[in-house]
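Q: Hi! Curious about what Calcium channel YVC1 looks like structurally. Here's the sequence.
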Amino acid sequence: MGEDLADTSSRSSCDDDDDPEAALNPTGDDEDDDNVASRFRMRRLPRGGQDPGPPLSPGDGTAMSVYVMMHRIRRLVMAAIDDPYTLDELRAPHIDHQVVRPLVNRLYNPRDAAIVYCLVANRVQFLRPRSHEAVHQGLHESRAILCELLATRILRRFHEDHPGRSGLLLLANILVSGFDPCDTAPESVRSRRPQWAIQERGGHERKLTALELAIISESKMLIKSPACQLVVDAVYKGVVVYTPLSFVDFLPDHYKYHPVSLYEPRRAAILNHRRLIVPQIRNVIELLHFALLLALYMLTVAHYGFGADMAGVRIYETVFNVFAAGWVLEQFAAIVEHGWEVHAQNLWSFLDVTFVVIYAAYGLVRAVELLLTDGAYYALPVLCTAAPVLLTRLAFALMPDNIVFIALHAMMRDFTRLTFIAVWCFAGFVVGLLFLARTSGDGSVNVGVTWATITKWLLWIWFGLDGTGIERAADFHLILGPTLIITFAFLGNTLFLTILVAILTNTFSKIIANEAAEIQFRRAVLTFQGVKSDAIFSYPPPFNIAALVFLLPLKFIVGPLVFHHINVAVIRVINAPLLLIIGLWERRRVWARRSKSSRLRSWRYFPGLSPHGDIQVVFASEPPPEVIDALEKMDALHDVVMAERELAVDSPKNIRGPVATVRRRRTSNSSSVRTFEV
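A: Let's find out. The predicted structure is below.
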């Protein structure tokens, strides 16, 4: 096994980089991955299969522990800038040459795969709101931006220094391998960790990935970088495979841990059940599940009065309820998989939660009706309210890269937050008018107006639909009634709506300005959420309910190996047709792509195919050495680089004040950008 992997790795550098399907490491079900795990460890990347031993000082080329590196980065970043700066200011030539590049050269270590994780972890910490440091929040945001900028530059350097398939495997280990933030931390630090009940994962507990932290901190600049997108695209298509890390699994099966590796379809099992968690395949499966849910919902609502059995439960309703229960279980497991903070970044997460709430209300009302009566007079109207949610969710699922839906997701979050604040504040008008209606100015009690009527009038005024509330204002009180109503009209209809439009316009303009980054960020979220570690996702609804009922108790009876074999066998039996189609399709795709690639190599630069073929021929290969020597005599590239550096140093002082004091030594009262010498 070790010789096969070494031989495959040596061949990988000679393969065509445009063909991602020819992979390094097969990942069959019965294959031992210990050699792969030893080649690319979570904390350091040894060369030539040699273990470099314990981490030493940063100057000797070995990897530092995650705990030490996180504190080292924090000290350097905090010493680098003491004033708030924007991203454009940090990327300006002067600061870039004096601060950013020296920090990149100081931190970059080709043998340390955890450096990007530590940088993004520091970004998360800088962005964490702290009430006692509110006055320094702008400075913390600037330091968070610097951490993201350094992570992007270092990841790009990894990409440039390690091309080909081995480089793709290295980048994948950097972004999707798990790291323990308390690695080699003192016992006093470990003892303060939250002591919640965690599932056994063979030493991979409490680990997080750099890509997950980038999603949580919304590091869109890092995610949209070519190196990160290369890994995201490879994970999305299933070229890069690994066992993801999650907090809690409903049906855990962690007997085998598969490290980050490249997938070879032709050397894997034909019924490879792990292909069910490939994001590209997973998205298609989830879309089919939702389409079936929508079809059953339509049949239930349209044929509710037909096909009733003796128990009073309709056939369509029974099938819909069984399948919907499995679908809700799948959504709940998806939220628990990576936490709500990551799941909320999904475009249709709020629609799924809304449907779950509606379905839970429908189930509760239906259960009460079955206990008390034999009909369904109140449950069906509750279920009908889910139609706008389901149809809208279908549009979101079919067009996940549409910028309009991406903007709608962000604006819905702002709209919900602002509406909650407005309803909370404007509830005082309802209470005040209700008290005025109960007790008029002459002491008599006005019983003709209720809180529901007052709320209806205020809503009509809020949306500008009707002025009944203004006309009836004197019924509350001759002076105070019109005063409250007119005040509400000014605040609600004019001020609040103006603020709402301004906020939503600002959000939409920001998203449109960074359209490419937003699309790539959502794609990364979709990819990260698509890789599942919970075995419950390998069972389609409603089989996941049966698996939870029967297999989960079985896990506590039999051993881990027996449970793993039973679980894999059941998954393959249930998904046998789908797994067979996936296996044949992937093998066919690899053969077709390689055949097409070989034909294109022969005809790609043939001048007769295009009137501009001569231009393609000129740039198809590097010029000969004599031409390069002649060009170097005409234009020496090192002179161009020196001119760029001199231009950066002698640039006009159009940057903020502290930049002019770059070379000032650090003192107790200084507030400036520091120069780092490498």
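A: A fun detail: The chain has three domains: 2-186+204-264, 279-344+348-399, 405-521.
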